[in-house]
Amino acid sequence: MQINGLAAVVTGGASGLGAATAARLASLGAKVALFDLNAEAGEAHAKEIGGKFFTVNVTDEASVEAALEAAEAAHGKARILVNCAGIAPPAKVINRDGSAIALADFARIVNINLIGTFNVLSKFAARIFDAEPVGEERGVIINTASVAAFDGQAGQAAYGASKAGIAGMTLPIARDLARSGIRVCAIAPGIFGTPMLRGLPQDVQDSLAAEVTNPKRLGEPEEFARLAAFIVENGYMNGETIRIDGALRMR
Questions:
Q1: From the candidates 54, 159, 192, 224, which is the catalytic residue?
Q2: Residue 104 φ then ψ, to 5°
Q3: φ and ψ at 190, to 5 degrees?
Q4: What does the pLDDT read at residue 171?
Q5: pLDDT confidence of 24, banded at 50, 70, 90?
Q6: Which residue from 71, 104, 107, 151 has the highest number of Cβ atoms inside 10 Å of its Cβ?
Q7: 52: helix, coil or strand?
Q8: Span 79-94, average pLDDT
Q9: 3-class SS at 134?
Q10: Which of 88, 51, 77, 67 is nearest to 200 (CA)?
């Protein structure tokens, strides 16, 4: 699928991996709609890349429906969706005082990362399931998993579960949407230099980078974005979760 001239939606598009992906798609000629809760950063980034920003809560059905409708009115029917919205707070099963994690804290992470991703992708797919094909397909969905789906750390029970869910639903959804000509993949990034990580002390960043096999550095959001664009353009990529992590294996 050629990106130039197509409408795209990027969730979590105000910062980090989502912002880099939105910028990459825009540079390749896409008409990009950024979905995020951070209106100030989202509006600024949308202006910078020539896109449109929409305030969206990915866990709310009405919010997602309204944003997809507004984005379509602005850019036409979107054919590309990249889901980057998510959170990664530490959440150990047992707190330092010996109490169990509040179920609401576990559920919040799963709700935003996994259910929010499904909420957006299902409504996106419903809008194009019978649209005029673009070449041999109607659309491409890329979700963001994580290496934590496969080798999560202590404190990542909820996060790892949410990202394992994204990896686990990739093939079934690709099969579900095959009859509509919609491809589905996921990207599982390792340790990337997002604003959150770049805000950590340099010695902590260096320690994290030392865990990467090669190259020994944090991944750049633009590297994630280039992989997302490659998946969109390569019509035979489907049903796969792709690690991009410098051969990192967390332990």
A1: 159
A2: -65, -35
A3: -90, -130
A4: 98
A5: very high
A6: 71
A7: strand
A8: 94
A9: strand
A10: 88
SS3 122: helix
Q: Which residue has the tokens 């919609």?
A: 182
Buried b or exposed e, range 22-53, using 16+ CB within 10 angstroms: bbbbbebebbbbbbbebeebbbebbeebebbb
Structure tokens at 197: 């990580």
* Angle 144-149-155 from CA coordinates, rounded to 5°: 110
What tens digit of pLDDT does each residue of 35-57 get?
Answer: 999 999 999 999 999 999 999 99
Spatial distance between the Cα atoms of 47 and 44, rounded to a whole number of angstroms: 5
pTM above 0.70, yes or no: yes
pLDDT for residue 31: 98
Inter-residue contact 166 to 187 (CB < 8 Å): no
3-state SS assignment for residue 81: strand
The CB density around residue 79, as the number of other CB atoms within 10 Å, is 26
Q: What b/e sequence results for 98-117 when a residue is b if at least 16 CB atoms lie within 10 Å of its CB, and e otherwise?
A: eeeeeeeebebbbbbbbebb
pLDDT in tens, 141-164: 999 999 999 999 889 999 999 999
| pLDDT single digits (tens) 158-216 | 999 999 999 999 999 999 999 999 999 999 999 999 887 887 789 888 988 999 999 99
Q: Could you tell me the strand order of the sheet in which 52-55 lies?
A: 52-55, 31-36, 7-11, 78-83, 139-144, 182-189, 241-244
**Residue 8, exposed/middle/buried by CB under 10 A (0-12, 13-18, 19+)?**
buried
Nearest in space to 194 (alpha carbons), one of 166, 213, 214, 222: 222
Is position 236 annotated as part of the catalytic site?
no
